[in-house]
# Entry
Amino acid sequence: MTTKPLEKLEQQRQLFDPYKVLLHNDDTHGMHEVVEALLKSVPQLSQEEAIAIMEEAHTQGVALVISCPLEHAEMYRDRLQSFGLTATIEKG
# Structure
């Protein structure tokens, strides 16, 4: 079965369109734990960025961690969840 050019383009667009990885606040993990989990889960974050993300999630209830293609977003979400944090992804 051959893929039509428009179908292939749509498949590629879905793979490479940006997805947001969101960190949600919880009352279980300490601030230091969250920062460490962010740094280990998303290595390109600086310590200052991880602290800012943690503080935003703490005060606003949710914070944007990173925006990236779907495959990477799923990986980062899974890594954060492996630390017991609540993380989701959404298109956008």
Strands lie at 19-24, 62-68, 86-91.
